Amino acid sequence: MTLPFLAITSGEPAGIGPDICLDLAAAGLPCRAVVLGDKNLLKARAQILGKNIVFQDFDPQRPSEKAADGVLEVFHIPLDAPCEAGRLNPQNAAYVLRLLDTAHQGISDGLFAAMVTAPLHKGVINDGAAAHGFFSGHTEYLAEKSGTPQVVMMLAGGGLRVALVTTHLPLKDVAAAVTQPRVESVARILHADLRDKFGIAAPRILVTGLNPHAGEGGHLGHEEIEVIIPALENLHADGIDVRGPYPADTVFQPFILKDGDAVLAMYHDQGLPTLKYAGFGKGVNITLGLPFIRTSVDHGTALDLAGSGRADSGSLIVAVETALEMAGHEG
């Protein structure tokens, strides 16, 4: 059986990325999960954690068969400096970016079917990779690499899918960023990827309001009347099934969710607390709008857990499974 190659970037070397990537050796996944990272670092971390793993150098010419249990396939990319679990080293910032660049190039060349990313540390990249310019995150970096003008952040977990109109903004800046063109463009990207990458023929999108009680007819704000409802009307005119705006404190009720395939929230802490409560540790961060599939874990580098044996690889496993499922709907 021919299996797809998936690129798994191991992320910040001092964090739990290498630890959780080691668990792929025993995950029994129906794909070639190729870990991009320093093979010696992965071996050292496996020894610290007492994991008995056979490390196999990645060879795209090898018959595309499922690896034996306990075998981890590694695309070796060497560190720039020694690494100690839990201790950030800015000298390895460029290394982390090389992981992403290599995965992206592999996807562009048709080698990898998707990219799955372990967590990185934005601060240390900005401290140590100044030549690359300001680094604001995986999502923005991959959008720039691929020439994608707009991407959308969606998290999935606990039976929910939640996409965001705005992402990492101070709360005081959110209302100004929720514009009619942005609501429309985000909804269009969400609709297209639910259809093309998730195989949902006619996606149903539940849209929240911005204000408490969705503005309560203008008594608690006018953004629903002046921005969101006109956006939904334009989307309806183009045949996109958007519903709302719903008050954010009630949209996650089962009797409402049963009529939707995803929730489109206006800002980060409006949409994600419920999802993370429902599925933390098993959630997946999905970047929509890219010309390829990219999923990620729903957590950070957890430096205090690196090398301790207490890191949970559940989110990474689900991220790989989700990327594989999405790859099956493409083409």
UniProtKB/TrEMBL annotation:
Binding site for a divalent metal cation: 168, 213, 268
Catalytic activity from the UniProt record: 4-(phosphooxy)-L-threonine + NAD(+) = 3-amino-2-oxopropyl phosphate + CO2 + NADH
Gene3D superfamilies in UniProt: Isopropylmalate Dehydrogenase
Residue intervals passing through the bilayer: none
Keywords: Cobalt, Cytoplasm, Magnesium, Metal-binding, NAD, NADP, Oxidoreductase, Pyridoxine biosynthesis, Zinc
Biological-process GO terms, alphabetical: pyridoxal phosphate biosynthetic process; pyridoxine biosynthetic process
Tagged with keyword Thylakoid: no
Metabolic or biological pathway, per its Swiss-Prot or TrEMBL entry: Cofactor biosynthesis; pyridoxine 5'-phosphate biosynthesis; pyridoxine 5'-phosphate from D-erythrose 4-phosphate: step 4/5
Annotated GO CC locations: cytoplasm
Record-listed E.C. numbers: 1.1.1.262
HAMAP family on file: PdxA
Note: The active site is located at the dimer interface.
The family this protein is said to belong to: Belongs to the PdxA family.
Cited NCBIfam families: pdxA
Subunit structure: Homodimer.
Protein name stated in the entry: 4-hydroxythreonine-4-phosphate dehydrogenase
Organism: Neisseria chenwenguii
Lineage start: Bacteria, Pseudomonadati, Pseudomonadota, Betaproteobacteria, Neisseriales
Gene that encodes it: pdxA
